[in-house]
Amino acid sequence: MEPADWVANRFEAERDRLVALAYRMLGSRADAEDAVQESWMRLTRAEPASVENLGGWLTTVVSRVCLDQLRSRRVRDHDALEPDALEDASPASHPGPEHEVVMAESVGLAMLVVLERLDPAERVAFVLHDMFAIPFEQIGVILDRSPAAVRQLASRARRRVQGAEVPAGSVDRHGELVSAFLAASRSGDFEGLLSVLDVDVVLRVDAAALAMSEARQGHGAPELSPEVRGPVVVAETFKGRAAAAQPALIDGAAGAAWAPARQPRVLFRFTTVGDKITAIELIADPATISGCEIVLGPQ
Prior knowledge:
Blueprint: H1 3-26, H2 29-45, H3 54-76, H4 83-88, H5 98-115, H6 120-131, H7 136-143, H8 147-163, H9 170-187, H10 190-196, E1 197-205, H11 207-215, E2 227-229, H12 231-238, E3 246-250, E4 253-258, E5 266-273, E6 276-283, H13 286-290, E7 294-296
Parallel strand pairs: 1-6
Antiparallel strand pairs: 1-2, 3-4, 3-7, 4-5, 5-6
Helix pairs in contact: 1-2, 1-3, 1-5, 2-3, 3-6, 3-7, 6-8, 7-8, 9-10, 10-12
């Protein structure tokens, strides 16, 4: 295979993911496709052989293109949610390519409207970290900010998203999904766990939670990794566990906490889209926990 063909094939393998990422940032399928096409043009002008991580390189380029577009919109005081986003948010209006239907179902108009309330840097940080599990270090390179500053951006964006007015039932549905997950986890209901997990669900575990799990291996703690993807693996991780976790509101959103003596030691933070859990975070870092607003429920 010629080098140019190899690069083209690798790019095509990344295209759907890049379009989905750009769509969440821009709220327009046409703009998302333009941003991805721009990344292809830049790739052809670069030296692909010198790129060690092509997927990461393309993510960075597409994100920067989107960031520039968002900033330009802000300067023009333009309504960023373009008319075709209304069509993209309705699966019935796009009977064509499967990836467009999946993209529309996974985002939804309600989430797009909420994302429009974020400033450009917040939106990029939130989408990359909370929706695509990109590390803060990599996002910092994209935004030209420190990882700590990016963490604050994502946290602020998360609070704004959770505090935004969304259609009635969305907040209640989030709480129902979290409750169903915890109940299935405690009872060891594997099928019940699978029923609430998205096909692309990601579990992210911070360094403090990893260390805590390793220290308790002899007491039945699960073996954890910094990040795992897929409903089967995530369900296996939580099956028969979470008995000591109690419901909690974390920055205003339904979650859970392990809080011996009512002192939060580990937070379980959930991201939901529609009727599925798309991301779970286990947080044990004391500094992060202290920066969260936590209301513990009954044990």
